[in-house]
Amino acid sequence: MRLNSHGRHPSRVTLLAVILLVCIVAAGSVTAWFLTRDDSPDFCRELASDSRVEPILAAAHGREVDCATLGRTLKGATTGRIAEKHSLKQAQAMKNTLLAIDDRMQKLGVTSLDAEFSTALADALVDYPSDIYGSLAPSEFDHWNHNFPWDPPWEEDGGVHMAVPEKPLMRVMRGLSATPSAYAELRLAVTRSAAHELATTPDSTNHSVIAAAPKTNARALAALDAIADNVTGSLGKEQAADWKNRVFTRLTQVSGSVPPYDKDPEHNITGTWQKDLKSAGNGDLSASLYGQGPVLVKVWGKGNLLKEEQISSLADDARFSAESARITWAHNLEQWQ
User: Fold this and answer.
1) pLDDT tens-digit profile of 224-260?
2) Are the beta carbons of 166 and 136 closer than 8 angstroms?
3) N or C, which end of the chain has less CB nearby within 10 Å?
4) Contacts of 248 (CB under 8 A, 6+ apart)
5) pTM value?
């Protein structure tokens, strides 16, 4: 071993410090975004002891579970064998779970949740796409009339629905979204609901009728914009870039060809947007997400053979509505955390 400038061997403490620093830098370059998370088991232990969650866990695991097992158990209790089909009991379990998560996040001051827990819980939550959308979008009065914590789920049009106030829902989605794959799944779920709203808009010459869905979509999608900005704003430059890369990869995964609009309007709208996003690249993901609403409107308008001037007007409405809603959501999210 070489001597230092004073003719002495480096101390063991110095060597250990150098080795530790190298390990930290190396680990940070690969999984840096994890370093900002609260991955301690405290949150999961607290959640498992919540009176609304305990009954869900009792039959399968009892109270002592790790975060991954807790997430999987909650997913199993809130979803069924058929996608987006739930019993009243499952919907109530989902509502209780979301409210319990929010309460425990507030108690512990947590804004980012465990990755394995988030992956499982996001998978469960996106099985309720119309309920996420309805809880965020102002025109969905059915959801707003049932979103008090004590309101039970309800049956409507052959399905079961539940609603959660926007404040706890946004906080929970923000917590889950620290995991990029969870954010991407939430974004895709809201995108599918937005496409459904557009595709089921009745034919009309009344501008206010056909403009309703683009404006409602703008508010729901802007909520996801604000969450993404909040997450990346809490990360370093390299961490934020890694998070965006992972989100972009998932959002642009399209299986098969995009069906013609007249065959499958909803999948045409979502698939066309995903392919356009992939073509645009990940140079500025935030800008691409901000512009999602107008893109969906243009695809829908062309599919419905609307006039170019009308499509342009509706796209502008969607853009302005999204910009306003994004500012409001961002401000509210900062205040609510």
Assistant:
1) 999 999 999 999 999 999 999 999 999 999 888 999 9
2) yes
3) N
4) 277, 282, 285
5) 0.88
